[in-house]
Amino acid sequence: MIPRSFEYYSPHTLDEAVALLQKLGPDAKLLSGGQSLIPMMKLRLLSPEYIVDINRIPNLDYITESDGHLKIGALAREHELESSEVVKQKFPILADTAKVIADPLVRSQATICGNLAHGDPANDHPATMLALGATVVATGPKGQREIGIEDFFPGLFTTALEPEEILTEIRVPTPPPRSGGAYLKLERKVGDFATAGVAVQITLDEAGACKRAGIGLTNVGMTPIKAKQAESFLTGKQLDDAVMQQAAELAASESQPMDDIRGSADYKRDLVRVLTARALTTALNRAKGGA
Amino acid sequence: MAKVPITVNVNGAEHHEEIEPRLLLVHFLRETLRLTGTHIGCDTSHCGACTVIMDGKPIKSCTAFAVQADGRSVMTVEGLEQDGKLHPLQDGFFQEHGLQCGFCTPGMLMTGYAFLQSNTDPTEDEIRHAISGNLCRCTGYVNIVKAYQHAAQKMREGGA
Amino acid sequence: MAPKTSPEIGGMGHSVKRKEDPRFLRGLGNYVDDVNLPGMLYLDIVRSPYAHATIKNIDISKAMAIPGVLAVITGKDLEKYNLHWMPTLMSDTQMVLPVDKVMYQAQEVAAVLATDRYIAADGVEAVEIDYDPLPVVVDPKKALLPDAPVLRTDKKDKKDNHIWHWEWGNREATDQLFNEAEVTVKEDIYIPRIHVSSIETCGCVAHFDKVKGKLTVWMTTQAPHAIRTVFALVAGHVGLSEERIQIISPDIGGGFGGKVPVYPGYVIAVAASVLTGKPVKWIEDRMENLQADSFARDYHITAELAGKKDGQLTAIRIKTIADHGYTDAAANPSKFPAGLFHVCTGSYDLKAAHVEVDGVYTNKPPGGIAYRCSFRVTEAVHTIERMADVMAHELGMDPAEFRMKNFIKPEQFPYKSALDWEYDSGNYAAALQLAMDRIGYSELRKEQAEKRARGELMGIGISSFTEIVGAGPSKHFDILGIKMFDSAEIRVHPTGKVIARFGTKSQGQGHETTYAQIVAEELGFPVDSVLVEEGDTDTAPYGLGTYASRSTPVAGAACAIACRKIKDKARKIAAYLLEAHEDDLEWEPGKFFVKGSPDRAKTIQEISLAAYTNHPPGMEAGLEAVNYYDPPNLTYPFGSYICVVDIDKGTGEVKVRRFVAVDDCGNIINPMIVEGQIHGGLTMGLGPALYEEIQYDESGNILQGSFMNYLLPTAVETPKWETDKTVTPSPHHPLGAKGVGESATVGAPAAIVNAVVDALWHLGVRHIDIPITSAKVWKLLREAGVKG
Predict the structure, then answer these.
(1) pTM here?
(2) Which terminus of chain C is less hemmed in, N or C, by CB atoms within 10 Å?
(3) Cα distance between residue C455 and residue A235, in whole Å
């Protein structure tokens, strides 16, 4: 329960932080919320020689809407998603997701950007960001660059970030009218990682048919999964029960779960089916103006 | 390892200490400052016995380094009582038998302190979710919910 | 029943607010890890990654090179003092630190002594140990096969892994009834290993004062006197002498049985303190607690019930394999290696019964009864209540009606069970009826039928349990030979205040309040005038501690008896003061008065002063008494629980919609505290029923070694418990009280399982082993062709 010793740095600007990462190399880890990092350090599963604490860098804790996007800064905490008015109005799927991450105490420290940067397929936001079609902004020695969320998770515990880059912002396009989304997670108890989780974000056209569907899957593969076949199946169709059931079956077939302590692969696959159908129903309801 | 100086305001008093960066906030409070009301119940950030308030937010002090508290203010259970008067939450737990062994209690109190600031008339369901990061083995939670409700009512009536 | 005393006095029946609360609410409790002594050193433990391995080499050089690491203690060091092995509470033997081999994953292998906690942790990581893995035995059935590796090679002539065989009952009569039975049901019931996980882990601060030659140990222990005697016996040869050993059990953050055993960490800390003359603190972290401390359950049960077609039960037959881990360190009374498992005839008037249990060694941590279970009573109740439900469903009978038909009737008490327990009192039908009324049983059955017709899954489960607590009468009960009496020492001061000390030790049960209430009840001192102390063996009278719900039945009785001795003397003093004859005096709470002349009275406070200033000539001064109470019998709390569940066909999740608990613990001291015990007990029944289990893979690796996977229910998983009561006093207890701390943990799991099986019976499900996870239910549903 006691971490190994490390050297501690607390930069006051992003440039300083990036320079430190460059100087200290791969033995340095960033500390933002610390709710994934510190537990690993306490178990000595991870013992970085250097910690670069970015919590003192000002103006990174925003959640604002501008230029047709919701912009989430590096130090925006999970609990802020639960209380943000703009999130409640236009991005309820983000509030759904935040609510089921760990527990309320963890959420007062944990950052949304950190939830992506950790690269853990068991984290919840990756699936939601996949469903929303978000973009990640990385800041490094060469400046800023944008990375599409679909390209952000190449492998287990791996992201597209370069070693000296910091994930400084997530940009979520503001959904057009007649949009709705939902995130459903089956957990063994509050605070657990998902046995399976499904994020669904849809937009309907004026005739009520599905114009765009985004479906992301949590913890049923080595990376968060975008259920592309289910997404294309839904596009252009009226979403009746039969269609949604079929999409759910497709999403299940796209998942790649493994047997583990939370359940068998068969169980998880079927959960994807069940949760996708339910999330679609809620998303559809919200797209039509309901709750 | 080289020690770093930190200044932390704890329960209204400034403390200047030199500590190892790896020192967990909970150990800083318990061992360096000898405020042993904050407890340790696990090593995987699940139990919440270590809950304190840092800059107004309830956090698990076992999942933070003391250096992160530099320049910040921390409130622990020892800081709840003011001028010998119990906080409505403390009184609520006393009146409603919200504690048995007392080990999870400081964490429950501090979570409640933060929670009732933003939710002055919580439903039972909201309370249960608010304390879902605090484990109790003794009470079965029923009376903890009642203690929160008792405190909320008292605070609405102006007893805060 | 209305209290006999006023609220100001606060005797039995009053929901007096707890006297111990103020310090806990202020964060001023004094738990073991709060103890801080000058020069205190820290002990941290190196643990084995292997479940079974020979120790080839321990290299401490890197650890010793760390500044601040003072010593690394190994089995070879302790062997010099013959402290490397010690007895268990069941007269088996356990390693403190191994010399040759380790026998469970996370076993203590070496201990690092350092100047602070952080350096000790670094030291632990730096100790290098070479192991030679040995074949691992985790399945107790496989452990009994002839070709299984023999684990206890330390025992000369031991050629197998069988510990003991125990049986009770009339095998012939039972077999006869089974042969004649119109209907029999049989199930295999596995009750898995679980861990009590009090929020405070175990630990101690050992301080050997070289000048006084005295050892003081602050320890998380539920039984401080027993520990003191064990230390004196085990370490007498290194100079520890019982009058110079002081065990202090300060505030304890939950016990539930997990803080009864003597863990190696305590012994090593004591040894380290004796050797260095400095205080040594050892506090285990949660993963150590889960992986190495005493567990509970792990019973592989095959149960059969026999009866008639009309639902009349006749007999029960049970065979059990008990997985004890590598040594028998369960803290059972010595005559009962399977605890009180033979209360498994339950609340029913069975004509014959036979039960047999075989204890087995495996490569796992030792233990067996540390989870609020009353010495294997949870296992017994789970079995009989599950089987009763299986039989009822098999016969197509309503489970409530089935139970009513078979209950022991009030007029049959005191009732001798087919397994020789004499139940003191009970009214099982009344408790079940009250539970049914409270939950709206018949409406729920209607709702269930309607839902079933629509394909929705809803279940109702009942558990009507009889508990058995208050160990115990000296004729049958001892631990390591020490009889299981308990004690109260009560002293009244001249100013009418009282100090009362006990041989028990609260870990949250509220003794500082409830014992004071007994004194208030018996002697009329206001409850605020009575100071209760427990846990310091230098001052408290000898007792066997608090576990198995024994404090109220045994020490509570001692308290009443000691008070009555005081009252006898007080009467004499009052008579003297009032110049009346003792027989002419009447008592009302707090005073004696002359019959017919109520103004000729003396309060208990006046009498207290007189005991020191104006007592009758020839009488000793003072006003105090001690009682060591040898209970004539156990007490038998009981209850009926009804649980309603809804099952999500898609995910397999079980939602407990409602749970009504009706408990009868005889006369109640503090209703608020009793209700709190029930809430907590129910939650520790819910945990094992749906969430908690400890499993090992084939190599002996623990799968739930932290709270990541050992799942404690939060306030979200826990339903809003509904409680009620009946009151059937114990005829033999001085206060008519029975004890209640564990009832709910004992009775609840069966109610939950019965509800789930009830929901799924029509799909062909007859039994599900706990914990009933969503994954398990999902599998059963899909196998039955139900798709969500």
Answers:
(1) 0.98
(2) N
(3) 33
